[in-house]
């Protein structure tokens, strides 16, 4: 199993809003209106602690932006925009990479393309020591390039209607990659959702020669692709999710809800009813996530695609006296393997 840490992943189960935007996971962090910003640190038990990212809040206590890249060659600023009712309307990302790092990345790719048998450890060690690390808090973000974004569209009743996920090719051209649709009954209750991945994994970019002007031009070619979709049927104590690839049914999921409407079990099945994965969530008296346990995972999701699972099958969440998240402990069964620490800065 691969050791991986994906920034923001740990918030997916903690801050998910059942009757708001469940997919994609874009719920913002809430630490109250007395907090200026929060630093998030992470380390495996046998590795040094590193600052991963930071969360910054405006005067109303809303999560205004996240900064990533304190110990990375590229810096990213993710900003959140809200309407007058406080509902999230846009997520905008901007990226920055110093001129030195940009040049190194090109050399790095060229070396990889030339070497058939790559010594990954050696090449990483070679370039990691050469990168320039920039504090994202010092970057002029107005000059940075804009990258993938999310747009939230609402109907005349101010209900979630559509979420659009936009991504970008290396050439800078953007495209619509995913959509989430929301359906309601006459009582204004959310009864179903449909998530569609319209991104094609086999789109490639290449340089096409234009004889008329004797230059190369960036072009995009669609070789093949798959359209993934999820449909959600929501009831008081259960969410049923069906998975489809190119219109073909590939699996289903049951999310079991407790009396407070919180998800206690997430069980994914294949078309024959065999369990593909099972996650169990437990909560404290304040209805905050206390423990997330991966009871079983086959390595496949409901689309029948294989996954690279994170190391560790248990996360335990710890809060301060104000119910603010301050630590997440990771375990592989009962062995402690990692710590995520949150440092809170008051205004």
Plain-language structure description:
- By secondary structure, the protein is mainly beta.
- 7% of the residues lie in helices and 50% in strands.
- It contains two helices and 20 strands.
- The protein has helices at residues 99-114, 120-128; strands at 35-44, 50-57, 63-68, 75-82, 88-96, 145-154, 160-168, 174-184, 190-197, 203-210, 215-222, 228-234, 238-245, 248-257, 263-270, 275-283, 289-297, 314-319, 325-332, 335-346.
- It has an 18-stranded antiparallel β-barrel. A two-stranded antiparallel sheet has the order 10-11.
- The protein is globular and about 60 Å long.
- 18% of the residues are buried.
Task: Provide the helix percentage.
Answer: under 10%
Oligomer: single chain
pLDDT < 50 runs, ≥5 residues: 1-26, 203-223
Task: Tell me, rounded to a whole number, the average pLDDT.
Answer: 80
Q: In one word, what is the shape?
A: globular
- Secondary-structure-derived class: mainly beta
For the secondary structure, the number of strands is 20
Main beta sheet: 18 strands, antiparallel, barrel
Q: How far apart, in Å, are the first and last alpha carbons?
A: 41 Å
Query: Helix and strand succession?
Result: EEEEEHHEEEEEEEEEEEEEEE
Could you provide a short overview of the structure?
By secondary structure, the chain is mainly beta.
